[in-house]
Design a protein that fits this description.
Elements (H helix, E strand, L loop, with lengths): L6 H4 L7 H6 L5 H6 L5 H10 L5 H31 L4 H8 L4 H14 L4 H42 L18 H5 L3 H23 L3 H24 L5 H13 L7 H8 L5 H17 L1 H32 L2
Helix pairs in contact: 4-5, 5-7, 5-15, 6-7, 6-8, 6-15, 7-8, 10-11, 10-14, 11-12, 11-13
Length: 327
């Protein structure tokens, strides 16, 4: 099995896509679009540091839209093609599939498993471990290294590479105003509504797909919502601390058996909540959010699609190569 060195997190840094974004005429939006693969945690980082109404906010949002709409299909085709070449160990490909997004990981793993059906269980386990590593370690990596490096490189490269594109190519994007909720945060009422919708979807999905009794699912989801609500309260009290950072620390502490007096009870009540039941309501809400922000995506146009898919490809291939080297 390939080792999981921290070096793999380096492959999650998509700063190498920044020059391409600048050559295509993208300005400060390039920072938000290229410092990561633009998933939920990365949106939180940009929102906390720059605000979602900023150019960086527009960039990461457009990256998120591209990944949501096209990312899974693209990485499935890419991973299937690379797997068919036979140049990488399937376990290395599984490590590369854990890009920090559940939907992208699932799509990539499915394509890899088709090529290597005899190792399906091992591939899925390694990909899940890699995805968890990326989600936790990658958050700190992008926050403290990738984003500052990308911003610094933009200042150095834009005066040089920007001359190869039209200076006014992105001018009209600067006039786009994002939704007020994105610019100023989410109200407690909207947050509670989101928790209720996701919770209801999980309970129903758990019952229909996995035949878990409603009461068992309800207990687990109420505990999960209580943890999220506590983290949200901490965020409102300590506004300068990123919400995802707070949640990562709190959930990690609670999730270690025996770490806290109530850790074992929490684990027992939530262990029957299947991960896949969260994806439908979460992606449905994400789709509604994407729909209202399509003007940003439309103005960035084909440029952001090229940048986003290049970043995704670079992340997958880079992580796979590193995993192969340490295999």
């Amino acid at each position: 099995m390939p080792h999981q060195p921290f070096h793999e997190a380096f492959a999650r840094d998509d700063v190498d896509t920044l020059p391409l974004a600048l050559l295509l005429g993208i300005k400060r939006e390039a920072v938000g679009a290229t410092f990561s693969v633009g998933r939920e945690g990365n949106i939180v980082i940009i929102g906390e540091k720059y605000g979602m109404a900023s150019p960086e906010g527009r960039g990461v949002l457009a990256e998120y839209i591209t990944g949501t709409v096209l990312g899974a299909l693209f990485i499935a085709v890419l991973s299937g093609f690379v797997s068919s070449l036979g140049i990488f160990d399937p376990r290395s490909l599984a490590m590369g599939a854990g890009v920090g997004s559940g939907s992208l990981m699932a799509a990539a793993v499915r394509a890899i498993v088709v090529q290597h059906p005899g190792q399906a269980s091992e591939i899925m386990a390694i990909a899940a471990a890699s995805n968890l590593l990326t989600s936790v370690a990658g958050f700190f990596f992008t926050l403290f290294l990738s984003l500052p490096l990308c911003s610094w490189l933009y200042g150095k490269l834009e005066p040089v590479l920007g001359r190869f594109s039209r200076r006014d190519a992105m001018r009209e994007v600067q006039d786009v105003k994002l939704d007020g909720a994105l610019a100023h945060g989410t109200s407690a009422r909207d947050a509670a509504l989101g928790w209720f919708l996701v919770g209801a979807g999980v309970v129903i999905g758990n019952k229909l797909s996995y035949h878990v009794p409603l009461w068992e699912s309800l207990k687990g989801i109420l505990v999960a919502i209580a943890i999220v609500a506590a983290c949200d309260l901490l965020k409102r009290v300590f506004s300068r601390v990123p919400l995802l950072l707070t949640m990562s620390v709190v959930v990690t502490l609670i999730g270690v058996p025996g770490m806290l007096p109530f850790s074992d009870a929490v684990i027992a009540m939530t262990e029957k909540l299947n991960f896949m039941t969260f994806t439908t309501p979460v992606l449905a809400l994400a789709g509604l959010s994407v729909a209202k922000d399509l003007p940003v995506f439309r103005l960035l146009g084909w440029r952001i699609v090229v940048v986003s898919l290049t970043a995704t490809a670079g992340t997958f291939l880079g992580a796979t190569l590193i995993a192969e080297f340490f295999h």
